Amino acid sequence: MTGLQRARVSDGVEVLRLDRPERRNAMDTASLDELLVALEDLAADAELRAVVFSTTSTRALCAGADVAEELDREGGIARMERFARVYQALTDLPVPTVAVCVGNVVGAGAEFAAACDLRVAGENLKLAWAGAKLGVPVGPARLVPLVGLSRAKELIFSGRAVGAEEAGRIGLAERVVPEAEAEAEAIELARQLATRPGEGLRRLKAMFRDYEDLSGRTARENATLLDWQRYGAGLPQGGMKAG
């Protein structure tokens, strides 16, 4: 069963929908593999103008890593390597990306949203960088450029949930709408972007990425995250099979 839907909704605009509603789109190894294939395909698509990162259920964009997946130590490392590749691939996509932030956007879900260029929040948003509760070294690379150093520290250290109104107020969401309208709003935003000259869009995306060193920041954080998985406590904690 696939955990990802793809649709080309108009010229140059692709929608990726996470489709594991029974798990609130928590990501297991297989779904990460599907997402990586899709992102690699899109990165090579010369006709692409914009990507919408969405969900088939307004209950969640993504609730993080799937803690129910049974993994031995090597499996945990392999899955974390996939997460790192997804974070990098989202950051490095050559066209603008828009995240549909509805329901639970937690842990890896918050990282996916922050890796996108723009975000549309549904009114039911519960966004949280929950990793600090388990000591996961992730978050600063993508959050600091969005909200500033001090606010990023507070959100990551506390792991508290951010609602839609606050997300809009602090710059985590460009638009706030009822959750049932969030994907349509994100697609309309992407379609507006797609009317711009394609080469110019790609050049501007590269400029933003280069000026903020977003690729480098993500790569350095990924290296720290993978070291923690290989040599530290790692994930999942308490649910890992002996191996």
Could you walk me through the main structural features you see in this protein, from its secondary elements to its overall organization?
By secondary structure, the chain is of the alpha/beta class. It has one domain (4-180, 194-231): Alpha-Beta Complex (2-enoyl-CoA Hydratase, Chain A, domain 1), CATH 3.90.226.10. It is 46% helix and 17% strand. The protein has nine helices and nine strands. The protein has helices at residues 29-43, 73-92, 108-115, 140-147, 149-158, 164-169, 182-194, 198-211, 214-231; strands at 4-10, 13-18, 50-55, 60-62, 97-101, 104-106, 118-122, 126-128, 175-177. The chain has a six-stranded mixed sheet with strand order 1-2-3-5-7-9, sandwiched between helices. Helix 1 packs parallel to helix 2, helix 2 packs parallel to helix 3 and helix 4 (140-147) crosses helix 5 (149-158). The longest helix is centred in the middle third of the chain and has 20 residues, at 73-92. The radius of gyration is 17 Å and the shape is globular. The model has no long low-confidence stretch (mean pLDDT 95).
